[in-house]
Amino acid sequence: MPIFLDIQEAELSGTKEVFLSAIRYATSTGDSLPQFEDDLRTSAQEQVEFMLEDDEKIPLVIADDEVKVETRIVVSKIFSSFENELFSLILEPDIANMEMEKNIMRSLSDLEWMHNTLLKMDLMKDFVTHWSNISSNLLKVIEDKRLDSVMWDLKIKLIEVTSKVLEAVGYGTVVLPAESRVELLKTWLPYIRKMKSLSDEMEAAFPYKMSDDLCQCVEGAIVSLVSALPSNDQADILADWISAEQVQYPDLSEAFEIWCYRTKSAQRRLDEALTESTTPTPLPLSPST
């Protein structure tokens, strides 16, 4: 048994090292030669996906504290790299710099791939927290006037990643405090509305439109997210939705109906409680009576 356990421990250690190395190379954070970087990145991503799906030792590996810490470090590096590259856009004299756009899209692709990986590792909250923290900064850059008519692929891809975050929060995969959920929603909802409106105005042949599937995913996640908020926060968001010019999207009528029903039920319970508290209690009859 001691020999068997030593063999098991050695095999597990080897699997852990392979997994961590693959994670680093899969997200362009490993040390690789430039001419082999894309090939290594693709191969490493395939290796991670294979291990997560088919390696019988992987449940023990991803439960290891060292693996979790190293994975979180990689995630932090990817987000930092992506944010820095995006900010460099508005500092660049040539806004149509193809190499810079390529690097940004690669970092965003790494983030999207990492989302799927963290979901399988039960570390999705790390992704959602990072995305929430940088959301305001991302929108400051992407809504810069110099980017109004360029980089549509980047704009749509940002909404696709945001959709995954909204789904994770809206459907309860990741639990955040109410104030964080409200901030996430209020940060992205105006931009998503605007992009949907612009997308609808584009010709049918325009390659960078919000697809029907993406629109449905975003709308469903937002409805679920709104419906789970405290009543006052729901009221604020629904009031803004009703008064918005792009009231057609996302359609929050289902969330509005749920809010109305719950509000009426709460009011009815309150009225009943007040009525019971103000109704005098009849005095007990005396024995002589």
UniProtKB/TrEMBL annotation:
<dbReference type="InterPro" id="IPR038920">
    <property type="entry name" value="At3g05675-like"/>
</dbReference>
<protein>
    <submittedName>
        <fullName>BTB/POZ domain-containing protein At3g05675</fullName>
    </submittedName>
</protein>
<comment type="pathway">
    <text>Protein modification; protein ubiquitination.</text>
</comment>
<dbReference type="InterPro" id="IPR058039">
    <property type="entry name" value="At3g05675-like_ankyrin"/>
</dbReference>
<dbReference type="Pfam" id="PF25553">
    <property type="entry name" value="BTB-POZ_ANK-like"/>
</dbReference>
<keyword id="KW-0833">Ubl conjugation pathway</keyword>
<feature type="domain" description="At3g05675-like ankyrin-like">
    <location>
        <begin position="98"/>
        <end position="263"/>
    </location>
</feature>
<comment type="function">
    <text>May act as a substrate-specific adapter of an E3 ubiquitin-protein ligase complex (CUL3-RBX1-BTB) which mediates the ubiquitination and subsequent proteasomal degradation of target proteins.</text>
</comment>
